[in-house]
Amino acid sequence: MAESPIPVTLPKGTPHGFIPVYTYRFPLDQLLRPYLEQLFPAALLSVTELRERGEQALPQMPLFIDSGGFLALNTDVTIQEEGGLGVLVQPNGQTISPRSIYDEQRWAVRPNFPVTAFTLDFPAPACAAAAERERRGALTISNARWTLSQIRPFRVFASLQPGLSPAEVLDLQPDGLALGGLAPYSADRERIRHEVRAMRALMPPSLPLHVFGLGHPQSVRAALEAGATTVDSSAPQRLAADGRSWTGEAVTDPNSAERLALALSNLLTVSRAEVPLHLHPLWRGVR
């Protein structure tokens, strides 16, 4: 028997559905930009991308600005505690801290284009020991509480991992919650449904819930069905850059125009994630 949906009553105007990731490093994203601005309710940029953008303009659309905490999954990155907060240290010595993220997210605020900011969280790799998971979880909560205590020129979503209780941050009235750590399990749709439903059941129905790093249409559909409000991923572009689409098309050594066409196909497919992939009119089997 299918589980009954958890009631969700979101404020009017809350973004819903798939949110594409935007970068400044790949030519394909630059080609896609005008389409993203017209077709999607928002785009997600990481703080690491903001640092790479130089003089390039921000997309003319609402932005979700991630902390870059996904880098915590890299084996060459370290997580340090400084003044009770967690700081991510990259191999080149560059750091990502709650304070630096807050400043960079605040800089991106513009009239007419709302910003949704995410707190710095520390997902743990599957091989991490229990003690390390606990340490990362505690620093994730500390970072979220610090950011939620600051003046908010933007919406702030508290980023959490599966197993962390939202009760640890709800007293500071976040504008939403975000669930990370599921990208390595994208093919396990039952796990996605379980973790999203578990988080949704512990939070007010009026709060949005974002899920990081799920791009396959079936994974996005599983998250949205379970109560997620929005889901992001760069997978549509990455698949297109490799010459493939989720509707089964494959192009050997694609040129820029072919990559753009494949990326648009992937983005439009995932934006209609409520439709099972095998019912998509162009579906020919996923390679």
Encode the helix/strand succession as letters.
EHEHEEEEHEHEHEHEHEHH
CATH superfamily: Queuine tRNA-ribosyltransferase-like
Structural class: alpha/beta
Gap from first CA to last CA: 31 Å
Strand ordering within the main sheet: 1-11-10-9-8-7-3-2
Domains, number = 1
State the helix count: 9
Mean pLDDT: 90
What Rg do the Cα atoms give? 18 Å
CATH architecture: Alpha-Beta Barrel
CATH topology: TIM Barrel
Shape: globular
Strand portion: 15-25%
CATH class: Alpha Beta
The biggest sheet, with number of strands, parallel, antiparallel or mixed sense and barrel status, is: 8 strands, parallel
Low-confidence stretches: 280-284
* Count of DSSP strands: 11
The percentage helix is 25-40%
Domain tRNA-guanine(15) transglycosylase-like: 63-249
Protein name: tRNA-guanine(15) transglycosylase-like domain-containing protein
Organism: Deinococcus xinjiangensis
Kindly describe this structure.
- The chain has 287 residues and is of the alpha/beta class.
- The chain has a single domain (17-271), classed as TIM Barrel (Alpha-Beta Barrel), CATH 3.20.20.
- It is built from 9 helices and 11 strands.
- It has helices spanning 27-39, 47-52, 98-107, 130-148, 167-170, 189-201, 217-226, 235-241, 256-271, and strands at 17-20, 43-46, 63-66, 78-82, 85-89, 95-96, 115-118, 155-160, 176-179, 209-211, 230-233.
- It has an 8-stranded parallel β-sheet with strand order 1-11-10-9-8-7-3-2. Strands 4-5-6 form a 3-stranded antiparallel β-sheet, with helices on both faces.
- Strand 8 (155-160), helix 5 (167-170) and strand 9 (176-179) form a beta-alpha-beta unit.
- The longest helix is centred in the middle third of the chain and has 19 residues, at 130-148.
- It starts with 16 loop residues before the first strand and ends in a 16-residue tail after the last helix.
- Residues 280-284 have low confidence and may be disordered.
- It holds the Pfam family TGT.
- InterPro entries: TGT-like_sf (IPR036511), tRNA_ribo_trans-like (IPR002616).
- Residues 63-249 form the tRNA-guanine(15) transglycosylase-like domain.
